[in-house]
């Protein structure tokens, strides 16, 4: 018995001492800051409206970055991607003045002032081609990573594929622990991009690179990072959060990436939302929208265009010779907030950032103010989602005009030509000011960019009448199903449906019956096989022949599968035009000199069957409302609310 006590007593003391030592062991707090989807909004300026803006700009996020750094001892800063394209400044650098080898891209003139630790490649980085991308990245004073883009070696053997970019990075990072002592933590970063770049930018990438699955790439490299001594692994996927069963090649893979063992934090982007805080993610298994975790992994997505800064705060404890994460949470901080019709700034711009790109900013202003035509009436997109619209009409007119010329003396001459275009600026997450609004009179290049904001390449697809109708069925997902004979107002617009997927097809006439359910779900799959919202489709006054062939003018994004539309996967493309859609619109305006932008009213809604429906638009829309629209007031975000008869 005494012998047992002699053994027990020292062991108990030892355990108590160890527990005390563990409780008192120094910890490290590490803050990770994220920017994403800047889309060349480096300064706080709206190039389309040609005025200063309180709601966009890396220069305003820079102030948040400095504030967040000052609050803690240890921090790192990452950018998620979609940086180099997205507004006229990006187009000016790529296509206007043209970036030369050895020059520093203005994005990096700005970002190099902020001491980024690492950057990730977004899908829009490929829009101007690989040569432009590599010229641009050469100006960054920080490394770039991407783990799922490989050199296309053409041998069909995946085992010997070589990464096109550095797939991951492990940075020894000096930090101060809770005792004030300096420690070194090995921080690992790994980045991803949607594999869909191979369809969205096929012309730029085919034969040069290949893109692989995000989750498979993570499972390949993260064990390597662990074996090479990474204490913390930060995943930076340019990928949103789709909730559902995972499919190979998933575009929005973040939800499933959080399940991959070994990831300590996720800094994501791509879908232009905010997390934590996105109400669509409430009550989702594994998602904590308050603490900002996904299956226990802290994650953040800070909006778009510099609207927010993302923060992840980790607590690390020593484990052997290394460190491990024991706790973490995430949050976001905004640069502005809405108060009724007003955007109130929460921070001022960092003038060092604005000054760094002043030369390119002024060049962009001159570039965008060039006159290309004249309009006899105002052009706006206030009602683009509820009636045929002049801003879309101009694009479709231009595309048909172009296609009529390009098919001459080809085997496609004589086929009927249709055109598809969507409203790119129709409120939504962009706010009540995010609409095309061009007053009558001179049309400048900035207005053309306002009508067509993406640098897409023009494509022509050949489809049957039946396939054209299915295209419209997919587009009709823009609308909620309306229940007949209800007096209480029902929201007409499905706000989760991207407006750039609401294609209006000109050259035919049709009705949309929103009292019927959607035929397609958000992923482009048929969910109601017997549902048909598109009715009374005619071509030249006669019912459309379902087996008749049509040429439809569109863009490379749609033609190659963007938006997951039926019969649009690249295989139906018959003309790869050498021009961009935006250039086509500009050349059309130059050729016409003066235009009447009136819509031809080729589509309309079927009867709402006794229901009252409403929609939101810009407060400016009140003076343009049709007799069948009644303004009822402003909502809490500053949008004007209209009832539609």
TrEMBL record:
It is found in: Cell envelope. This is Bifunctional 2',3'-cyclic-nucleotide 2'-phosphodiesterase/3'-nucleotidase. Residues 373-569 form the 5'-Nucleotidase C-terminal domain. Residues 30-273 form the Calcineurin-like phosphoesterase domain. Belongs to the 5'-nucleotidase family. It catalyses: a nucleoside 2',3'-cyclic phosphate + H2O = a nucleoside 3'-phosphate + H(+); a ribonucleoside 3'-phosphate + H2O = a ribonucleoside + phosphate. Residues 1-25 form the signal peptide. It comes from Marinomonas ostreistagni. Pfam families: 5_nucleotid_C, Metallophos. Keywords: Hydrolase, Metal-binding, Multifunctional enzyme, Nucleotide-binding, Signal. Its main location: other. Its cofactor is a divalent metal cation. Gene3D superfamilies: 3.60.21.10, 5'-Nucleotidase, C-terminal domain (3.90.780.10).
């Amino acid at each position: 018995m005494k012998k047992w006590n002699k053994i027990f007593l020292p062991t108990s003391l030892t355990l108590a001492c160890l527990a005390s030592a563990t409780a008192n062991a120094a910890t490290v707090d590490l803050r990770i800051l994220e920017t994403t989807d800047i889309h060349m909004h480096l300064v706080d300026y709206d190039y389309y409206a040609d005025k200063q803006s309180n709601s966009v700009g890396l220069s305003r996020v820079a102030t948040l970055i400095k504030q967040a750094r000052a609050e803690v001892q240890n921090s790192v800063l990452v950018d998620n991607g979609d940086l180099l394209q997205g507004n006229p400044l990006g187009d000016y650098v790529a296509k206007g003045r043209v970036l030369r080898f050895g020059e520093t891209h203005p994005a990096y003139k700005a970002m190099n002032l902020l001491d980024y630790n690492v950057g990730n490649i977004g899908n829009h980085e490929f829009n101007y081609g690989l040569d432009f991308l590599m010229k641009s990245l050469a100006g960054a004073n920080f490394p770039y990573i991407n783990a799922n883009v490989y050199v296309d070696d053409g041998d069909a053997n995946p085992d010997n594929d070589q990464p096109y970019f550095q797939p991951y990075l492990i940075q020894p990072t000096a930090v101060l622990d809770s005792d004030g002592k300096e420690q070194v933590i090995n921080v690992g970063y790994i980045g991803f991009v949607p594999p869909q770049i191979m369809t969205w930018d096929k012309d730029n990438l085919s034969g040069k690179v290949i893109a692989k699955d995000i989750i498979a790439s993570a499972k390949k490299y993260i064990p390597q990072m662990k074996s090479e001594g990474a204490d913390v692994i930060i995943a930076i996927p340019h990928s949103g959060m789709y909730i559902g069963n995972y499919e190979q090649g998933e575009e929005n893979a973040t939800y499933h990436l959080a399940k991959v063992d070994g990831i300590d934090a996720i800094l994501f982007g791509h879908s232009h939302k905010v997390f934590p805080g996105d109400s669509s993610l409430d009550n989702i298994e594994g998602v904590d929208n308050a603490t900002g975790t996904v299956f226990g992994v802290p994650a953040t997505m800070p909006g778009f265009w510099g609207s927010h800064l993302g923060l992840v705060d980790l607590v690390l404890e020593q484990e052997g010779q290394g460190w491990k994460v024991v706790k973490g949470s995430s949050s976001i901080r905004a640069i502005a907030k809405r108060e009724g019709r007003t955007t109130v700034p929460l921070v001022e711009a960092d003038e060092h950032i604005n000054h760094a790109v002043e030369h390119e900013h002024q060049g962009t202003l001159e570039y965008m103010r060039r006159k290309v035509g004249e309009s006899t009436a105002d052009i706006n997109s206030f009602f683009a989602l509820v009636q045929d619209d002049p801003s879309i009409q101009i694009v479709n007119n231009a595309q048909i005009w172009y296609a009529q010329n390009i098919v001459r003396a080809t085997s496609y001459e004589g086929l009927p030509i249709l055109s598809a275009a969507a409203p790119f600026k129709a409120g939504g997450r962009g706010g009540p000011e995010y609409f095309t609004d061009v007053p009558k009179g001179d049309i400048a290049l900035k207005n053309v960019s306002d009508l067509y904001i993406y640098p897409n390449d023009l494509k022509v697809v050949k489809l049957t009448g039946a396939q054209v109708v299915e295209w419209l069925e997919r587009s009709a997902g823009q609308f909620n199903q309306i229940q007949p004979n209800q007096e209480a107002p029902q929201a007409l617009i499905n706000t989760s449906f991207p407006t750039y997927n609401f294609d209006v097809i000109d050259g035919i006439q049709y009705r949309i019956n929103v009292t019927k359910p959607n035929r397609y779900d958000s992923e482009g799959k048929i969910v109601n096989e017997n549902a048909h919202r598109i009715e009374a489709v005619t071509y030249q006054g006669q019912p459309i022949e379902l087996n008749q062939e049509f040429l439809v003018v569109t863009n490379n994004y749609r033609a190659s599968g963007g938006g997951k539309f039926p019969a649009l996967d690249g295989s139906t493309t018959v003309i790869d035009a050498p021009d961009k859609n935006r250039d086509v619109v500009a050349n059309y305006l130059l050729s016409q000199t003066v235009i009447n932008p009136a819509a031809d009213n080729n589509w309309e809604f079927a009867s709402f069957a006794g229901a009252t429906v409403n929609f939101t638009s810009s407060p400016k829309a009140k003076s343009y409302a049709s007799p069948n629209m009644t303004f009822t007031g402003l909502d809490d975000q500053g949008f004007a609310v209209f009832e539609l008869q």
